[in-house]
Amino acid sequence: MVEHVIARYGEISLKGKNRSDFERVLVRNMQRALELWPQVRLERTSGRIMVTLNEAPADEVIARLRKVFGIISLSPVEVTDTEISRVIEVAARFVQEQTKDHPQTFKVEARRPNKQYPLNSMEIAAQVGAGILKANPGWSVDVHTPDLTVFVELRSEGAFIYGEKVPAVGGLPVGSGGRVGLLLSGGIDSPVAGWLAMKRGVELEAIHFHSFPFTSERALQKVETLAGILAQWGTRVRLHTVHFTDVQTAIRKHCPENLGITIMRRMMLRIAAEISSQRRLLALVTGESLGQVASQTLESIHVINEVTHLPVLRPLIAEDKVDIIRRSREIGTYETSILPFEDCCTIFVPKSPRTRPTLTEVYDAEKNLPVDELVRGAIERTTLKTFLMDHEV
Q1: What is the pTM of this model?
Q2: Contact present, 51 and 33 (Cβ < 8 Å)
Q3: Could you tell me which CATH class the domain 179-387 is placed in?
Q4: pLDDT tens digits, residue range 32-73?
Q5: Residue 320's CB: how many other CB atoms inside 10 A?
Q6: Which are the contacts of 158, defined by CB distance < 8 A and separation ≥ 6?
Q7: Is the dihedral of CA 169, 173, 177, 181 positive or negative?
Q8: Residue 248 half-sphere exposure, CB side, CA atoms within 13 Å?
Q9: What pLDDT is attached to residue 276?
Q10: Cis peptide leading into 57, omega within 30 of 0?
Q11: 224, exposed or middle or buried, with CB in 10 Å at 0-12, 13-18, 19+?
Q12: Pick from 6, 26, 224, 368: most CB atoms within 10 A?
């Protein structure tokens, strides 16, 4: 039975003097992902993280760790001492266990991070390969297109032998880049934007604008499900649900219909900026894609941004809708996002929205809107939930 898994990271290794800080955050996130198995032990070792299973199920542990940002690949490994005869014995047994009834082709790839080891990489590969052939009649060597590659790493802490590299999500560990507010709707785009922000190391605090009774409780449940799905990627997600009904009602009453979407987005940013100030969030993230809808032209984005000095990150700004949908399927949000429950961005859509608004006309449109009072009232009625990988708290 496999007792160890090696977790590899990529970009973290380039972080120089800050590398250990990123490693600590990564280990913390891995521990959170593996809370179901408290017996699992993690140890940083020579640019890798050794996961000692202590009888935890290897397949399930690997499945969890594949979704932890910062890890680029994982391998279940056999660990033995560095005596070459022992390495050959374990490698030969490993090959036997792969396909007992159908001999195939293989090759050995050897690495020697321990430069004090008496054999070089080519000598290790040759001796291990010869030992595998002797112990497994019928197998043959194919260095170009083998059915099985046997990886052998000779390290100061032991010999690692494995046969696969399971790809993981990559990126940077969540929490290594600070906290941001994600404007999370019930649509396809914003969860993908949040996921991409998480991949660059930020922790999400989602902000959702709920307009009950214009939008249903099912619509809110949909957003909570999306927050829970994002939390499955190795971290927690806090969800702020903003009571937005009074704001939308006031916009309909006091503002021109064709500027309603623009003013609504400005109000959302004002409220999100206030929440960010209270929560010490460093930026806002949106799911906007340039030119996709009326509020996502450059003119609209300019006018909407004007209400806040916070950086507004738009990971999807140059993405096609087809690419966004593909990504949403990959991360598991698509089927929830397409459920037919309207959010506040899809109600009260004007017949002819302004696609190139100016600040002058927006200022004029907002002159009868009690902006400060509406922001304050929305903040006071905001609720908070936290979603973890396995449950909500």
Answers
A1: 0.89
A2: no
A3: alpha beta
A4: 999 999 999 999 887 889 999 999 999 999 999 999 999 999
A5: 11
A6: 79, 80, 81, 82
A7: positive
A8: 20
A9: 97
A10: no
A11: buried
A12: 26
Task: Give the whole-angstrom CA distance, residue 195 versus residue 313.
Answer: 13
Nearest to 71 by CA among 29, 15, 8, 18: 8
Joined tokens for residue 363 = 């200022």
Q: Which residues contact 383 (CB under 8 A, 6 or more apart)?
A: 240, 241
The CB density around residue 325, as the number of other CB atoms within 10 Å, is 17
Residue 79, classed as helix, strand or coil, is strand
**Structure-token pair, residue 337:** 């996002």
Within a 10 A sphere around the Cβ of 330, how many other Cβ atoms?
12
- 281 contact partners, CB below 8 Å, separation of at least 6: 179, 180, 181, 205, 275, 310
Q: Tokens in use for 257?
A: 């219909």
User: What is the Rg, in whole angstroms, of the alpha carbon atoms belonging to the chain?
Assistant: 27
In the CATH hierarchy, which fold is given to the domain comprising 4-167?
A: VC0802-like (3.30.2130)
Predicted confidence (pLDDT) per residue in 86-124, tens digit: 999 999 998 888 766 676 899 999 999 989 999 999 999
Rounded Cα distance, 148 and 106, in Å:
5
- Cβ-based neighbours of 196, under 8 Å, separated by 6 or more: 315, 316, 327
* pLDDT digits 0-9 by tens, 135-173: 988 899 999 999 999 999 998 888 999 998 999 999 999
Given a contact cutoff of 8 angstroms between Cβ atoms, the answer to whether 188 and 328 are in contact is yes
Question: At a CB cut-off of 8 Å and minimum separation 6, what does 192 contact?
Answer: 287, 315, 316, 324, 327, 328, 331, 333
Q: Where are the domains of the chain?
A: 4-167, 179-387
Residue type, 27: V
- Greatest Cα pair distance, the chain, in angstroms, is 87
CB crowding 61-99: b at 16 or more within 10 Å, else e: bbebbbbbbbbbbbbbbbbeebebeebbebbbebbeebe
The predicted structure's pLDDT at residue 296: 85
**DSSP string covering 6-69:** EEEESGGGG-GGGHHHHHHHHHHHHHHHTTT-TT-EEEEETTEEEEE-TT--HHHHHHHHTTST
